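Ticket #4471: structure output looks truncated?

Reporter: J.K.
Steps to reproduce: submitted the chain below (361 residues) through the standard prediction queue, then opened the result file.
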Amino acid sequence: MPILTLDKLEKRYGHFVAASDVSLTVNDGEFVSLLGPSGCGKTTVLRMIAGLLEPTSGSIHIDDKDITRLPSNKRNIGLVFQSYALFPHMTVLDNIAFGLRRQGIKGHELEQRVKTALQRVRLHEHGSRYPRQLSGGQQQRVAVARSIAPEPQVLLFDEPLSNLDAALRDEMQFELKRLQSELGITTLFVTHDQEEAMSMSDRVCVLAHGVVQQFASPEAVYHRPANAFVAGFIGKSNQLAATVKDITSTHTTVSLASGHTLKAVNPAHKLLPGQSVNVIVRQEDFSFHPQAHDTALTATVAMRSFVGSRVQYALTLGPGCEFIASTSPNSNYGSLSPSSTVHVSIAPERVYLASASEAAA
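Returned output as attached by the reporter:
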């Protein structure tokens, strides 16, 4: 059942369009991430939902109620800021109680709401402490507790993990998802980190230039990108210049600058023989082989880089034609040395072809 609906939401500043024709529906209890690079419009959309920005046009509905022009304190929305925005002179208890008191809640109900919120974020023993006495992860949990204490219909997160170190960020991803699942609260999460979005979300909304590029499950966004932007933005991708050589009913063959050919499943957009295209392939989609065969590319290892769970190789096919492929360090191909020869292939369904105009956009 839909809880949050955005209908053709737009925000303009003069001639600059920060968000354009943003339409999406978030279901009851769903965790949705707004994902995109800096300046893509994701925070603008979040702030319009929260009532901190007034849309130029379009509408926002929560549970079939139009809240587009309602003040933020009338929207029954919880918001966790990137900076947490805790009051340094207040204890944890008072920080959580602040919003409840402004709603007129007091006495036993106030105490129970605060106690419950603290228990849900597992900070019930820290109520008398001040923010300066807490770690970054604990401060974030206080901010979450303050947001859920009023029992909002929708919970908004504005890049809440960006200030944490890598280990704590991984821990908090799990904690936030656990809490959201337990509460069953509809959640919209803004991030530029695709791993956060992919690991936590039921669906991901990818934005660029203020426009929704794709809104689908993490698996669909990753394996079936809607366009060249999504294919290049999600995952670690290579982009190689090529020319369309041949088109059949099911596959398109392209020729790289090195003279090598690749096959791709026919894209949704029409291509023509002789047309210039960009070939987009993710690093992990290359398969390594012990010997050359008809569909393999024979390349030279230019550089090896160990990055923990993966080994990355810069591979050269010829002058001006280089790409990066990765594999497990524990595989038979995890210890290739520079200047060695390697054979790799890519399944046609993992090759994305973008026309020159699409790639430029």
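Triage note (M.O.): checked the attachment and the full token line is present. The CA atoms of residues 307 and 329 lie 9 Å apart.
Status: closed, working as intended.
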